[in-house]
Amino acid sequence: MMDSHSSFPGSQGLHHILFAMFFFFYLVTLMGNVVIIVIICVEKCLQSPIYFFLGHLSALEILVTTIIIPMMLWGLLLPEMQTVSLSTWTTEFVLLGVMAVDRYVAVCNPLRYNIIMNSSTCIWVVIVSWVFGFLSEIWLVYATFQFTFCKSNSLDHFYCDRGQLLKLSCDNTLFTEFILFLMAIFNLIGSSIPTIVSYTYIISTILKIPSASGWRKAFSTCASLFTCVIIGYSSCLFLYVKPKQTQGLEYNKVFPLLVSVLTPFLNPFLFTLWNDKVKEAL
Predict the structure, then answer these.
(1) So which residues are the signal peptide here (predicted)?
(2) 271: closest CA among 216, 235, 227?
(3) Residue 233 DSSP symbol
(4) What is the CA radius of gyration of the chain?
(5) Do 268 and 29 form a contact (C-beta atoms < 8 A)?
(6) Alpha-carbon distance 69 to 262, whole Å?
(7) Quick check: helix, strand or coil at residue 169?
């Protein structure tokens, strides 16, 4: 843990307004994702691979928001005593990529869907996603804290942003920044390639469906996931895929808010309002 001072500028009154807003987002995020997990567990109509992945995505959203938002709320009330914690989003992008491939198989190759997306495959994919995300973040933490920090231990942020940490180091961080840049490229681009390819084929297939009902059914299972992919990837692409990790630090509060607050808040609505099966289960 490190201290964080003045993560959000403004008066104490503004901090109270922000506290109320983020607390509301946090409660809705928790309740919405818990509801999704519960209905996936109890409803037989949702016992399919895509909802199995969605359940893990909801669990991950709860984990990410619980790591970041309570600390941020504490800092808004008592900024002089705020601490910051680490966060991870790697697993989320892997799961989004897997869900995109699942939708590709369902829409473009439905007759082989049950063979390709069998239970053992789904379980192994989820295990690999969680382990890969955990190991990626552990390596980042290890690499960052090999440096000597002889400056202030205060970060101008609401979570442990690695660009801010590197800025506080007295050592030469160029090589580590380059490695982190390569890892960001590998994680984001590596998981986005199957996503882009899958949605290219999905859109092409949907446009060939003659009936409006068939088009709507196919679209309802993909639109919410595609929206989450756009928000998440665009935010983290701007945030992490840059050669020098200390660049653009003044913008590094806005985009983490999109990923850690807004996206988890919107996901339950996106996956229920645009998904007929989930609405029926509710």
Answers:
(1) none
(2) 227
(3) H
(4) 20
(5) yes
(6) 11
(7) coil
Output the six-digit token pair for 94: 């892997």
Distance, CA of 89 to CA of 159 (rounded, Å): 13
- Residue recorded with tokens 């630090």: 249
Q: Find all residues with CB under 8 Å of 96, minimum gap 6, and list them.
A: 57, 191, 195, 225, 228, 229, 232, 233
**Domains parsed from the chain with CATH numbers:** 13-281 (1.20.1070.10)
User: In degrees rounded to 5, what are phi and psi of residue 4?
Assistant: -135, 125
Q: What is the pLDDT along the chain (282 residues), one digit of tens a residue?
A: 444 444 555 667 777 888 888 899 899 999 999 999 999 999 888 888 988 998 998 998 898 888 878 877 877 776 555 555 555 667 888 888 888 899 889 888 888 998 999 999 999 999 998 888 888 777 777 777 777 777 666 666 556 666 667 777 777 777 777 777 787 777 777 778 888 888 888 888 877 777 766 666 666 667 777 777 777 676 666 655 554 544 445 555 666 666 677 778 888 887 776 677 778 887
The Cα–Cα gap between 280 and 125 comes to 28
Residues 6+ apart with CB under 8 A from 27: none
